[in-house]
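A protein record pairs a chain with a discrete description of its three-dimensional fold. The following entry can be read in just this way:
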Amino acid sequence: MTALPADGPLADVRVLDLATEMGVFAGRLLAELGADVIRIEPPGGDAVRERSPLLEGVAAPSGSLYHEHFNAGKRGVTLDIHSPRGGALLCRLVETADVVLETFAPGEMDALGLGFEALREVNPDLLYTTITPFGQQGPMRDYRASDLTGAASSGVMWLNGFPGDPPNQPGAEQAYHMASLVAASTTLIALLGRDRDGGGGHRIDISMQEAASMATLQHSSANSYTWLGNVPARRGLVGLNGGRSIFQCADELWISFIVPPYRWDEFLQWLRDEAAEAPGSAGSPGSPEPTLFEEPWRDPAYRIAHAEQLAAVIGALASRYERSALWHEGQRRRLLLMPVNTVADIAEDEQLRERGFLDRFEHAASGRTLTDTGVAYSLSATPAAVRRRAPQLGEHSDEVFAGLLALDEGEVEQLRIEGVL
């Protein structure tokens, strides 16, 4: 990884990360900002280490690339917090911490004597961030849920897909990620407020359903239902103005192609340069409909009302070009064209590489050099970065329990024998 200053904007903040997949991304986001994030797992490892994809030839728990990504930047220890000694050690770690991040079911940590109220007695300035499917209150607070449940309950699934199809699951665990983003951002706000007010702990209660629902209820930049009584429907390839904006090129790759109102003349010039309107366009010879070059089409409202005819013209034009050539030609003509990238496209994207978004690191178990995403923003004075690879199971247990809790080597080994570490 690129050598960077050891400190980031959260260099004086320590986070104890006990989150499952629902919140593991939040810990990574705080680690990118320089926080000392200590990942706490049970002695045998947690479920995150079992997640695919697995690096070829390396079995779990060492080969999970899911773990490598979401736990990058963190230190890692093992600790059985369900045992009396393990719970006591967690309390001692809390004395040194600023934030606890957890995703246990409501009441589960309280039953262990490790809930917010108990830990606030240990550390009055503690910020205690919980991510659960439906929050700490309400009739569904005790329901268990996966990312799929979050996408369904939030309405995000309802908006995904084509009008005639059933609702589709969004890719890449969007409900989990939205919950983590909200958890990280609200924890940052709570840190700022705590420091501004001179201390005092807070509980930050995140509902995955609520976090993901923001994408549904703010659809079209307006609360279509709560304000207007409209229920947004699945649109497939049709944009908000009724027109299609995604088209397939001659090489069967896809591109976003939008003709903004202020570039109508440039689009018409492109059609002229092609010698004729694209096949299947409105206004073909002998048709009573006006051609795109005639006056009615200059009215943006007319174009919206006849969006399907315009889409046919754009689709036919796109089919004449390979995607790369179409994109560059569209950019040259100052139209809004952009390839619909696959993961493979993103991994080779020159723009992302130039900004340092793609990072290389050595995989500990295999010794291979791998590429992962870096930080999705840039800070000039206190750079955010992925400062260390994801920890191997219990990699930093000796370092943390000796360095922070002053346990000697014999005590740490005895805790391992007893199954506490």
Q: What stands out?
A: The first helix runs from residue 24 to 32. Residues 1-5 have pLDDT under 50 and may be disordered. DSSP finds 17 helices and eleven strands in the chain.
